[in-house]
Amino acid sequence: MENRSSISEFALRGISEMPEQQQFIFGIFLSMYLVTVSGNVLIILAIGSDPHLQTPMYFFLANLSFADLGLISSTVTKMLVNIQTQHHTISSTGCLAQMYFFLMFGDLDSFFLAVMAYDRYVAICSPLHYSTVMSPRVCVLLLALCWLLTHTVALTHTLLMARLSFCVVGEVAHFFCDIAPVLKLSCSDTQINELVLLVVGGTVLVVPFACIVLSYILIVSAIQRARTPGGASKAFSTCSSHLFVVCVFYGTLFGAYLCPPSVASAEKDIITAVVYTVVIPMLNPFIYSLRNKDMKRSLKRLFSHSRMFSS
Q1: Among 37, 103, 181, 244, which has the highest number of CB atoms less than 10 A from its own CB?
Q2: Among the listed residues 181, 147, 142, 134, the one whose alpha carbon sits nearest the alpha carbon of residue 161
Q3: Rounded Cα gap, residues 106 and 93, in angstroms
């Protein structure tokens, strides 16, 4: 960022400005962070250690868990440190780094959900060609494409932010460095940043969501054509967890970024950000494991092995 000699750090408002609530907030978010890390690490270990889970669906679920770990770590850890040290600031370089990782891991969540919807479409609508269409090579290419696209988008926003001048020390009205609240503190012309945010950010949000909707439209259409007894319930049982996560994730994002300015507020932005950066990554391991017999079996095997080694 320009004028770094005069503006070397920003203040972060945090979840609440009331001093008496800080330790309560610290305890709640530390607990949620530890649950999120434990749950997603267990998902990754269970999938990696079970040969029966070496399929495209679980391959991308493991990567989704990794992205969730990155998403919550890039936002919550700095907030926890600030509460504990009672020093609610972040350096300009740290702000840019936090923004980059938040955008990259957040966009990865969106892209992985879209790829998982495509995987379900192929499995249900073209089961005979599934092993060919979703071959290991294709899965690796899809994974690399997701990482490349999200890195490019996050880096573009970060570099555009780095060119701006910040003439006075201001408070970021958030608990981490999101694009919109940081832009409000700039004394430079932010039209390019806002245009890129609208076009690129909107595309990254809408295109994966459109792919998910299209995949499920085709799935429903294929099920209706097949008309096999119990086929609908069996097909949707493999999609229910994914559908629930998609609804919560995109419902929150659309509510945060597509709401009219008249109803937008810093408090509303913070609440919605907590949902998709903390609550959803925490719930994902439970959603994908509680109704999945294969995951429950793998987790039980993982726990039994850990108890055997500890004894």
Answers
A1: 103
A2: 181
A3: 20
Q: Residue count of the chain, please give it.
A: 311
DSSP structure string for 40-72: HHHHHHHHHH-GGG-SHHHHHHHHHHHHHHHHH
Give Cα 82 distance to the centre of its chain.
Answer: 23
How far is the C-alpha of 82 from the C-alpha of 90, rounded, in Å? 9
**CA distance readout (Å), 260 to 40, 255, 263:** 34, 9, 6
The answer to whether 26 and 278 have CB atoms below 8 angstroms apart is no
d(CA 53, CA 43): 11
Side-chain-facing half-sphere of 97: CA atoms under 13 Å: 9
Per-residue pLDDT tens digits for 197-226: 999 988 998 999 999 999 999 988 888 776
User: If you compute the radius of gyration of the chain from its CA atoms, what whole number of angstroms results?
Assistant: 21
